[in-house]
Amino acid sequence: MNEFLIGLQFLTRIYIARQTKWTEENFGKSVKYFPLIGAVVGIISAALAGFFFFVTESKLPTFTGALAFVLPILLTGAIHFDGFMDSVDGLFSGREREKILEIMKDSRVGAFGAVSLVLLSALEISALIEIFQLSMNFALASIFAAPIISRLMMVVTIGTFPYARPQGMGKAFAKYTTRRTIIFATVSTLLLLLPIVLIDVKIFLTAMTALAISFCFTLYFGKFATKKIGGVTGDIYGAVSTLVELIVPIIFLLSLI
Which pLDDT belongs to residue 120? Predict the structure, then answer.
C-alpha cells in the first residue's frame, strides 16, 4: 500500500496520505501500481466529464471533449508533457548520443518540442470532441481506458529497455522492474478494463485493440530511442505515456466510423 501511495503522489497531484520518506526500493517498486494509478485518474476524469455532459444535456459536446483533455492534466500536473517535449527536442535533433542526452536534460523547451505538444494536444482534443458527438459511452470509456493503458506502457518501457543514463530518477524504476512487475501490471490492466464489457462488448474490444496497438507502438518507440541513445530515460517514459494517451482516443474514434 505504501508503494502505491508513493506512486500516486509522484504521478499525480492526489494525496491520500502524504509520503515524505521514500526509499529507493519503495520508489522503484511503485512501478507495478502504475496502471492502478492510471485508473484513479481515468475514473475521476470520466466521472467529471460524464457529469458535465449529463448536466448540460449533451448540448456542449465540444466543450466536454476539451474538458476531458484538461482534467487529466489537472490531476497529474502535466508531469508527462515535460518528458514528451524533452524527448522530441532530443531524439529528433539530429545530434549524437551525448548531445541528445544533454538536450533532454536541459530544463528549457525547444521550439520543436513546444510545437509538437501543440499538435498532439490539438489532435487529442479533436478526437475526444468527435467521440462525444458520436457516442457518450465510447467517449467515457476512452477517457477511463487511456490513462490505464498509457501507464502500463510506461511499465513495459521501463522493464523492456535499458536505462540510458548512469544516474537519474528513472534509474530506480529500471532497477526494481522485473518480468514479474510487467506481468502484474498487465494482469491489473486487464482486470481494470474488464468491467467495460458490461457496458458494451464492442467498446471492450475497442479497448483491447487500443491496448494491442499501444503495445506495438511502445516497442517500436523504445527500440527507436535505444538506437538513438542506447536506452530510455525518464523523459522517454513520459513521452510514451503522452503518445499512448493520444493513440487510445484515436482508436476509439476510428472504431465508430
Answer: 97
Indicate if the alpha-carbon torsion angle 88, 90, 91, 93 is positive or negative. Answer: positive
Tell me the C-alpha distance between 246 and 253, whole Å: 11
Q: How far is CA 101 from CA 118, 150, 164, 171, 228, in A?
A: 23, 24, 9, 15, 10
- Tell me the whole-structure pTM to 2 decimals: 0.95
**Domain locations in the chain as residue ranges:** 2-254
Report pLDDT digits (tens) over 96-147.
Answer: 999 999 999 887 888 899 999 999 999 999 999 999 999 999 999 999 999 9
Alpha carbon distance 22, 13 (integer Å) = 17
- pLDDT band per the 50, 70, 90 thresholds, residue 88: very high
Other Cβ atoms within 10 Å of 20 Cβ, number: 5
Number of H helices, E strands in the chain: 12, 0
DSSP-assigned letters across all residues of 138-190: HHHHHHHHHHHHHHHHHHHHHHHS-BSSSS-HHHHHHHH--HHHHHHHHHHHH
Cα of first residue to Cα of last residue in the chain, in angstroms, is 42
What's the chain's average pLDDT? Answer: 93
Picking from 135, 171, 150, the residue whose alpha carbon sits closest to that of residue 252 is: 135
* One-letter identity of residue 203: I
Contacts of 180 (CB under 8 A, 6+ apart): none
What does the alpha-carbon distance between residue 11 and residue 178 come to, in Å, rounded to a whole number?
A: 20
By the 10 Å C-beta count (0-12 exposed, 13-18 middle, 19+ buried), 147 is classed as: buried
Say if residues 131 and 256 touch (Cβ distance below 8 Å): yes
Q: How far is CA 76 from the centre of its chain?
A: 10
